[in-house]
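INTERNAL TRANSFER SHEET
From: sequence group
To: structure group
Subject: ATP-binding cassette domain-containing protein

Please process the attached sequence and return the structure record in the designated field. Keep the field labels unchanged so the import script can parse them.
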Amino acid sequence: MTDAPADTILSCTGLSKHFAGIRALNNVDFFARRGEITAVIGDNGAGKSTLIRCLVGVHTPDSGSTTFDGKPSAFGNPDDARQAGIETVHQNLALVDELTVMQNLFLNREIVRRIGPFAFLDRGAMRREAGALLSRLSINVPSVKSRVRRLSGGQRQAISICRAVGAGAKLVVMDEPTAALGVQETANVEGLITRLKAEGVSVILISHNFDQVMRLASQIWVMRAGQVVATRRASETSGNELVALITGASRAA
Ligand SMILES: Nc1ncnc2c1ncn2[C@@H]1O[C@H](COP(=O)(O)OP(=O)(O)OP(=O)(O)O)[C@@H](O)[C@H]1O
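Return from structure group:
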């Protein structure tokens, strides 16, 4: 493959993974550059999610090596990846419906104030920080006190992404972030992804939406049957070429 460039934030070499007779990943080399949006595309079952899950500690690869932020990174579980600065925004959003926007943003990283031997949740500080984060990322929700179950799909997706940024992610991995959204909400979430990039956050985006990939990504990786079959700068490819690479009509590597 193309050698990983100096500004690589995450990479893997020779990554393989099988499940009970299915070779889901076969000797995959991949990299994502710092501060860029990197897309991974491919047909159903191509191995996109398995690749991402191996990179963020959900699956243990059978073989191969990975690096993150300049260091070897064999994450044993997603918490280790999170500690290192990788947040994953899943298709089935991990938000708690009955909690407020603020509570979701600070889930498992609540701000605590200590007075003598006592510890209190500092709701004022969390409200202020939540408000500042939403406004910095131009996310519109009725209030930080709104229950997440009252929000639209696009607002919920935005809160998930916002939580990743609030947690200090250097890299946010998104698996089909707009698959369930309408046109306007998709545009809002795409705007947010672009703002992450402007803030210097690196993004890996799995998407079936070619137009979206061409609009957002700088580098596009194409997978087929568990392998990377091509990688392209978005500026040097076209929707037609990507379709040909995905289906195997083009064998260019
Ligand atoms: N936990 C698992 N157990 C068994 N097989 C699995 C598991 N996860 C993935 N696979 C298989 O591995 C292959 C790659 O699946 P993967 O989900 O990575 O593809 P994908 O490109 O993300 O597809 P999609 O776009 O449909 O999500 C498929 O054949 C899939 O059925």
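Handover comment: The pocket of adenosine-5'-triphosphate is lined by residues 19, 22, 24, 42, 44-50 (CB under 6 Å). The mean pLDDT is 90.
Transfer complete.
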